């Protein structure tokens, strides 16, 4: 779940920044829509990366960093529709339409 949709313990500033981006997208869409300008935002959730590997355990109930990267990734993948964690290329294909 994208941090902008769900608060995560000990990540208030990160969550707030993600929620702010969603607010900007909605506000800019309203501000510029009457000028024919569309505004789109992409909030894909966790993307497999070094940052994801180091921080994803926060999103697992009872998770700790001691679980290890591989186990954390497997546990996160169980909650993904693809059955795996997304990779940057998954998002790039959508954004570069």
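Sequence proposed for the structure above (97 residues):
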């Amino acid at each position: 779940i994208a941090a902008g949709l769900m608060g995560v313990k000990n990540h208030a500033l990160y969550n707030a920044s993600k929620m702010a981006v969603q607010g900007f997208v909605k506000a800019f869409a309203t501000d510029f829509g009457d000028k024919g300008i569309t505004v789109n935002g992409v909030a894909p959730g966790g993307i497999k990366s070094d940052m994801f590997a180091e921080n994803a355990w926060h999103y697992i109930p009872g998770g700790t960093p001691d679980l290890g990267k591989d186990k954390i990734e497997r546990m996160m993948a169980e909650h993904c529709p693809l059955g795996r964690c997304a990779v940057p290329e998954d998002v790039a294909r959508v954004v570069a339409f």
